[in-house]
Design goal:
Layout lengths: L1 H21 L13 H11 L9 H15 L2
Length: about 70
C-alpha cells in the first residue's frame, strides 16, 4: 500500500502547483511585459473594461490607477 500512496502523491504534486500559479498576484512593474490581451484580462479581474484599441501604455495607466484606488 505504501508504494501506491507514493505514486499517487507524485502525480498530485504538479496539480497543486498549477492551482497556486493561478492565484499569483501581478506586480505593477511587470505590466509592460504583458500583451494587450493579457492586460485586458487583468483589467477585468480588477473590475474595469479596457479597450484594446488604446495604446498599451494607456491600458497600463488605467490598470495602475484602478489598482491604487482599489487599495484605499
Amino acid at each position: 500500500m505504501n508504494i501506491w500512496k507514493k505514486i499517487k502523491s507524485i502525480f498530485q504534486k504538479p496539480l497543486l502547483l498549477t492551482k497556486e500559479v493561478k492565484q499569483k498576484s501581478i506586480a505593477i512593474r511587470d505590466l509592460q511585459y504583458k500583451t494587450k490581451k493579457e492586460l485586458e484580462s487583468i483589467g477585468r479581474k480588477l473590475g474595469i473594461e479596457l479597450d484594446r484599441r488604446l495604446t498599451k501604455q494607456k491600458l497600463i495607466n488605467k490598470i495602475k490607477f484602478r489598482a491604487r484606488n482599489k487599495n484605499r
